[in-house]
Amino acid sequence: MIQPQRLKREMSGFGGLVISLTSLSPSIGLYIAAPVIIQQSGSFAIVACALAVLLGLVVAGVYAELGSAFPYAGGDYVLIGNTLGPITRFAVLGSNLAGIPVALALPGLGVADSLKVAWPGLQPVPMALACIVAATGLAALSVRLNAWVTGLFLVVEIAAIAVTGALGFLHPHRDLLSVLAHPVMATPQGLRATPLLAMAVACSAGVYALNGYGAAVYFGEEVIGARRKMAWMIYGALILGGLTIIPPLAGVIVGAPDLARLATSAAPMQDFVLGVAGPGVAALVSVGVALAIFNAMIAGGLIGGRALYSAARENTWHVRLNGTLSRVHPRHGSPWAATLAVGAGGLILCLLPLSVLVMINGSGAAIGYALLAAGVLAGRRTGSTARSQSPLPWHPAGPIVVIAAAAGLLAAALIQEGPGRTGVLVSLAIMAAGGAYYHLAVRRGAAWARHDPPDEDGVARHP
Questions:
Q1: Which residues 6+ apart lie within 8 Å of 204 measured at CB?
Q2: Beta-bridge partners for 187
Q3: Are 76 and 368 in contact (CB under 8 A)?
Q4: Under 8 Å CB-to-CB from 346, ≥6 apart: which residues?
Q5: Spatial distance between the Cα atoms of 272 and 243, rounded to a whole number of angstroms
Q6: Which of 367, 5, 58, 88 minimizes the C-alpha distance to 238?
Q7: ∠ at Cα 92 (91, 94), nearest 5°?
Q8: What DSSP state is assigned to residue 218?
Q9: Which of 205, 233, 252, 344 sits a CA distance of 20 to 30 A from 383?
Q10: How far from 89 is each of 230, 244, 353, 436, CA to CA, in Å?
Q11: 75: left (phi > 0), else alpha (psi -120 to 50), else beta?
């Protein structure tokens, strides 16, 4: 077995919060996810995102309990695997390793769309490849340096979002209270009341728009005092994400001259800014959004590198591959080889059609939430989460609420034909492949072993 090299513990809790908020990416939530929600449910999009925050408060508690119990680099797959067993561990690992390169390729391809106002002739694939190379190169450096870089980009991102929302509230075309009380959506026959099924589907998309606040669990070995700080890093990212997405979204819906046109536009947010403020402001906002998307790609590289590094130090792959992917940079203390490998996967995926990438991305968030909640229930029963310093209040009501909500979101996605159903099925297929890999390859060998790294005091403790 390989002797794992340790990551460098040098980042503050504030740095972890910044990277987690960057992973959530308010700009992606507002400019990429929110338009889909508006198409699905019209003005109900505001409520859908607000409900996603309410659910997120419980999910954040689940993340905080498990992340504080297991402050390790592997993130979700370690939290779930340490409580639900190796089959589930490898199922989630498969989902993560398939989804993380997509999280680089999808936004990379979206950078050109974001810049079309300022740079109309930009080609998506070359731009995506360049962004992935740059983002992965940065992510391979010191995590503390990346916290500073992502923090600076985050300031630009929030400024662009604030301008978008302010333009709507300064040029209102409808009353916010009436929008909230009587949501409407666009149909071929014009605007009509948003039906309940459309609301349910929109809530599922709202969860995706706010997803990412749990990224702090991937940096448990690099944040000073991670067990104590895990909860406020996660809750802070969720609350700040909601505050930077929902008010600007409400501003756009209040200020849109024509809701039906907004819902049917290929780039509703950009068209809104262009129509209200003119090409100069629209170009500046588009550059800010592009920087925000690039920023989220850096966070994706940081997260993916740590997940792949964690799997390699547990001897999940071939012995030579494990030795390479578990390397830690002697100066930066980062899992540089695993990070670059994730970037290489993103480069390859850029060559696939966008529709395929969307299907791979799927509905993994809702499935992951349900498994994390089940992990809290199992951990409380077996005592494996006893070292957590942030136990979820109202146990077992909290995990049960999360499981029920996730089941409802998945059911709503499966009922309607379209990308939602396909995404759920693809996510389940990838997880099944991960479980099969454990049965066919890992369980038959003697090399794999769960790895619980030492705490900050240098003592290795097994829950």
A1: 363, 366, 409, 410, 412, 413, 420
A2: 190
A3: yes
A4: 101, 102, 104, 105, 108, 132, 136
A5: 20
A6: 58
A7: 70
A8: G
A9: 233
A10: 21, 33, 29, 11
A11: left
Between CA 447 and CA 436 the distance in angstroms is 17
How would you classify the pairing of strands 190-193 and 184-187? antiparallel
Instruction: Write the CA distances from 324 to 27, 73, 135, 299, 318, integer angstroms.
Output: 35, 17, 21, 22, 10
Using alpha carbons, select from 27, 8, 305, 22 the residue that is nearest to residue 152. Answer: 22
75 vs 310: CA distance, rounded Å: 9
Domain regions of the chain by residue span = 13-442
Predicted pLDDT of residue 333? 92
User: What is the identity of the amino acid at 157?
Assistant: E
pLDDT of amino acid 459: 45
pLDDT at position 365: 80
Q: Tokens 């706010």 correspond to what residue?
A: 210
Amino acid identity of residue 148, one-letter, is W
- CA 257 to centroid of chain Cα atoms: 32
For the domain with range 13-442, which CATH number is right: 3.90.930.50, 1.20.1740.10, 3.40.50.150, 1.20.1250.20? 1.20.1740.10
Q: How many helices (H) and strands (E) does the chain have?
A: 20, 2
Q: What is the pTM of this model?
A: 0.91
CA 164 from chain centre, in angstroms, equals 22
> Where do runs of H (alpha helix) occur along 140-193?
143-170, 176-181
Tokens of 236: 């802070």
From the CA atom positions of the chain, what is the Rg in Å? Answer: 21
Residues 226 and 342: their CA atoms lie apart, in Å, by: 25
C-beta separation of 413 from 423 below 8 A:
yes
Reading the block at residue 112, the tokens are 């050109």
Rounding to the nearest 10 degrees, give the CA dihedral for residues 437, 442, 445, 450: 180
Helices 76-84 + 86-114 axis angle, to 10: 160
Length of the chain, in residues: 463
Say if CB 455 and CB 225 are below 8 A apart. Answer: no
> Consecutive sets of 10 residues in the chain, 463 residues long: mean pLDDT of each?
76 95 92 87 94 94 96 94 94 89 84 78 87 95 95 93 94 91 86 88 84 94 94 97 96 92 85 89 88 92 95 90 93 94 92 67 78 96 93 92 90 75 85 92 79 67 44
CB-based contact 369:392 (threshold 8 Å): no
Residue from 302, 232, 408 nearest 75 by CA: 302
Coil vs helix vs strand at 191: strand
